[in-house]
Write a structure and sequence with these properties.
Number of domains: 2
Largest sheet: 8 strands, mixed
Structural class: alpha/beta
CATH class of the largest domain: Alpha Beta
Distance between the termini: 56 Å
Radius of gyration: 23 Å
Oligomer: single chain
CATH topology of the largest domain: D-Maltodextrin-Binding Protein, domain 2
Helix content: 40-55%
CATH architecture of the largest domain: 3-Layer(aba) Sandwich
Number of helices: 12
Number of strands: 12
Shape: globular
Amino acid sequence: MSINLQRFDLTTLRLLVAAVHVGSLTAGAERLGLSLAAASKRIAELEAHVGTPLLARSKRGVRPTAAGQVLLPHAVEMVARLEQLALAMDGLGAGTAGHLRLWANTSAFGGFLPALLARFARAHPAVVLDLEDAISDEVVRAVARGAAELGVIGENTPDEGLHTQVCNVDDLVLLLPPGHALVPAAGGPPVPLATVLEHDLVAFARPTSLTRQLAASAERLQRPLRIRAQVRSFDAMGRMVAHGLGLAVLPRAGAEPYASALGLVMAPLSGLRTRRCLLWAMRDPERLSPAAQALVQMAGPPG
């Protein structure tokens, strides 16, 4: 069978990538502004051309067949390069020196990233920054499909074959209101996680890498997480702690501003791995744009 390259249109390849990533042809079609009928027709025509099914359909959605798994990484590569081409051309049209699309998790935006981006913007004022706050799993998917060139994720996140490298190291601390029974004396020992788990907690509402890490530590101790309030930002977390709705475990860089502004106490922890790494996530470090390369280099090795 001879494959006609002209039959591989980019819209259908984008549809295939989107459908696999969300596990649904309907949701994939919605992302591209297509009707379900039009999307189904496109996939059927592509399958007819390659001579084999690419998606296995079920009541739970779609997943790639063996043939689909062969085609998928090539489709992802083509879609990602198209996204980068569009950004580069947009930058030329706007008279900029580049366009950097970066997705990062909440810990990055609440910690090291704003200061780094400020330094980068001063050094490269003509580069347009396109930023998105998302959970680590979403960041990985965005980088894998080309929606983002560079991402920042938690180290316990499945990377789907992306290249990763450490960009920041912090330690987890306990944030609690003054006068709480667990506030340690000056120079006192760290607060055991087992003791913390006897109290109500404030945690992220989304399945973030930080929440997964805390849940895994609690499971090892065979203790439940008593989550009383679920929030979406460090700011909301600090305010919930200040009003006595629970304690919070978060990176020191994320805790420090709220400890200072709201009069909260930061205490060291024991009983879990407190060293927390954040990682750059990218598809190919050798093919990063000059803007992305400059940002990674400016961050330097973690201290």
